[in-house]
Amino acid sequence: MNPDRNLGTLLDGTLHDTLAVSLPHFRPELCLAATIVLLLLCRMLPVLRLVDSGFLALGGVLFSLFFAWNDVLTLGGGAWASSLGDLLAGRQELFGGLLAFDSLTAYIRLLLAGFLVLFILFTKVSGIPDREDGADFYTLVLGATLGMCLMASANHLLMVFMAVEMASVPSYALAGLLKGRKASSEAALKYAVYGAGAAGVMLYGLSLLAGVLGTCHMPTMARALASLDSMWMPGGTGMALAIGGLMVAAGLAFKLSAVPFHFWCPDVFAGAAAEVGAFLSVASKAAAIALLLRVAFGLGTTGSGPDHAVQMAALGETRHFIVGVVALLAALTCTLGNLAAYGQTNMKRLLAYSTIAHAGYLMMGVAAAVALAGRDAGASRSAVAAVCFYLGTYVFMNLAAFAIVALLRNSLRSEEIASYAGLIRTNPGIVVATGVVLVSLIGLPPLAGFISKFLVFSSVMESVSLDAERPLMLVLLVVGGINTVISLFYYLRVLKVMTFDPPPADRTADAFPLVSIPGALVTALVVPVVSLGIFWSGLYAFARFAGAFAS
Amino acid sequence: MTGMLAMDISSLTDVIVPTLATTFRPAPILAALPVAGVNWHSVLFLLFAALACGFAVAVVAADNVVRMALYLVFSLGATAGLFFLAGAEFIGAMQLMIYVGGTLVLLVFGVMLTAQAPLVAIKASSSDRTLAAVAGASLLALLLTAAFSVDAWMAPGSEVVPAPSATPLGMALIGVRVDTPPPGSPAGGRAGYMLPFEIVSVHLLVVLVGAAYLARAKRRKTPRAIDAVASAMPVEPVVASTASGVASGRPAGGAKSALVGGGR
Q: Which of A105, A116, A342, B201 is most buried by its number of CB atoms within 10 A?
């Protein structure tokens, strides 16, 4: 046995890797885990039960946010102010290659922690969960977020699967939060059954990929893929790899609620509380997009090295496959999501289909980023930045939309669109806020949604002009344009009901005024939707920093 | 599963059989019998494979929930036998402990305690059965084609890989890889498994809290705040194709009847 395989050396190496390299970058996740334990400990003693679990969770998340922000600072070092070429991803592998720590990890973690702060404040205002359910609710939310942080940094197939499960299983319980209500239990059951099926399919796909390539470590898998020749000869590994890839795509598509794996989404959103819908539609989606970027770039590109160009060329076929699958799913998701949103009468179901459609737009950006990776690294980074910017604005847009639904439910006792009729006569402020959010979701200037969509579409356009997968990207561009027009109608229909329709005769309560705590929350969420549409360069600089991961 | 079995056929019969055939020399008394030349490894493999597949089919074909669970025990137990035959004792033992010993016993108890007369028998309509058979058969055909299309999985192995003992596995779980990589595997990317080993405990804690929350039927001290908004939740999911005007006549509080509340 050679000396460097001496057990003492190995142990020292592991200890150093864990304590000095990995754990310092794992502090946001550690904070979440510690908060979970604290939340449960506070239920042990009668005195400690006086501690409000919501504020305890908020404290833990603020610590997590602080460490995530610290990571962004040390990694970015203020570099995002300078030109794109200067950006370095600062990629590090944690825990012996299981996780990747780079600018994308830092950005998504910051996004998730920031979202959680807003989300917990929102749940405190909206009153679900109440005191009795609080500890369970926040434990589940923080546990799911822990999984989402891992999704954003997974670098190994084992972690891909574990992270998806860690994010999903608590969500099943969250969907059943309103215990004893038929719709809620049905939502939880449906979500759990579909989720278990998707997890099984994905696990089979992962095992096929690992079986062919002989490893689970994604950068090593990419190198093994690059060295494969005669993949499509008879007896080659092409078919097994393609089927494995498709099965993994099915698992990821379930998390993204992409068509044709979207069936759970409307039922779960309609059955679960609006608060849970907000969590699933924002946090879960952001993490799933990050994981899609991780897997697509992990398998389709290689890091810098002496034979970088050769390997990138050899991976062209892999990228072609990934782009094809993602682009097809994106076009389907976008179109079906927007078309199905038409007939909805329940606001939560409408937002569920809107979430599906937005997953489609985001996947278009991912497809463009992967397509550009082989052509122009800078353009590919811009495409990733566009997706990250979209996610950043999406947090505010969708959280505001669900917050309005939840707070209107508290006062109007209904989530049907028809029950919002004529709200402009009594509560013009709320209608204006809803209008801003919905117009931003359509993607009209001068709001944040417009910039996001513009950036994503321009990166698709960029790949058309650089001749990266040109026909496919041209189709995507057309589909995206048509879908934006389609979405105009169903979002505006809600506004039409709110403004022009007469109020229902049986309405007993008024909506909340804008000058109140719920009103202040809505205002706080809507102001960024407007201001990010005008002063977008700050967030875009952050997003470009995240995009630097695609080196 | 069938795809994996197809992989196993090649690796098992070609790689491990020669060693076993030399290790287990038939006893002299057996030499006189007509079974002397039988490759016992192949026989056992076929036996376990047939048991695993047969009981898996039986799970699907059975109508009674308790029987389904029992067949699943047999199917998963036979799969553990396949792992033992392949020389992966650790996975085989885990399969027995986790699936047969833990999950399925829990499943059987759960089924036996909760299944009431109308729920014990599960009858699928014939159209459902046909649809499921077509979908399953096409997936099976696809996976089998994929598994058999790889020449490397069909070729006889050149070398017998010694199965790792418990020590390297235990070391890998605390993050140190002391095992030597098998020949022909790509260089690098051999991670220890400390993070998944530790983080899964947080996950299990969270999931346990979720399960306890859903299962708890404690009488509430205070009425839930959300019970006041009962009418906000539609009893049935609104059908996607419902025209926009139809649902506006939904009576407020129509969902009240569906309320059981937390106070059972």
A: A105
